[in-house]
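A favour, since you know our structure tokens better than I do. Would you make up a two-line entry for one protein for me to read? Write everything out right here, beneath this request.
=====
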Amino acid sequence: MEELITNLHIHTKYSDGAATHRELMKIALEIGLDVLITTDHNVYVENVEGYLREEKRQVLLLVGEEVHNPERIPQKCHLLAFGVNRSMFAYAHSPQLLVDQINASGGLAFLAHPYEDALPTFHQPDISWVDWNVDGYAGIELWNGSSEFKSRSTNILKTIHYALSPRHLALGPHPKTIQKWDQLMENGERVVAIGGSDAHALKAHLGSVSATIYPYPFHFQSINTHLLVPQELTGDLITDRNMVLDALRQGHAFIGYDYPTPTRGFRFTAQTLNQNAIMGDEITLGGGVTFQIRLPEKTECRLIKDGVVIKTWKTREICTYLTNQPGIYRVECYIHYLGKLRGWIFSNPIYVRKP
């Protein structure tokens, strides 16, 4: 399998971002990303998908949309639409209709920042997802970089600190989002987890202090969704677009916080006597299942079954675990950085089913 480092949930000048699509591609190419997916608010930007190439490097830009109902008071329920070649804004008034229309168009619906706290300092409201009776969506945005800024800026001093020193911010997904994800899967739903930067690069002002929260280069080096695909980018837009969307649909992905150290190369797999599975796959229990976890470097690794940690390793790059129990198995990895233990890798699950 090949690995495509993907930064998604990005805003441009077409909504409330600070850069053009071309400018974003240049930044991504310099940093070494493979794929960008922009998601402007309630607008689908046409005729910008494609590649930027330089020598042997290339970056693919795809376009999605972040849809919400601006007339809803208080503001709630933002949704990311991928793989749909037109705006879904006409259906924003009904979250279920919105999801249904995205699916009917062959696209994917992801609930954006399911739990996002208010930030009174900058007059930012709580815009969490609340319509949990909706079904049919592909997954949720487990880790959102901008949401974490809001939830951790609990007073003016912390707001200024994290605005001026973003590398001190990230600790991991919102605990309520992780809890909800496990709950949804335990209820029998397949829910793909992605990580989004929610990049705007907007200027914020607090008295005489002004800062960009956060620059695009920082976002592009931080919370990424790593996709596992059958081949490298081919250079054919339709082929590569379908390959990226299929990996998102299947959950062949993990979330990596790449700023402390790159997460490229992480793998979580399962094997039986006659089956093999990667993240997002189902495997049938029969004679036992062997999990293997490969880390880019030695750090704390936790294997989680049905929302509960069942095994922790702290000094290994290769971790193995045998089980004869059905369940939903996923991996969380943590790394020490700037004096704190921080979330580093969050895998999508492998579903072990009864025969």
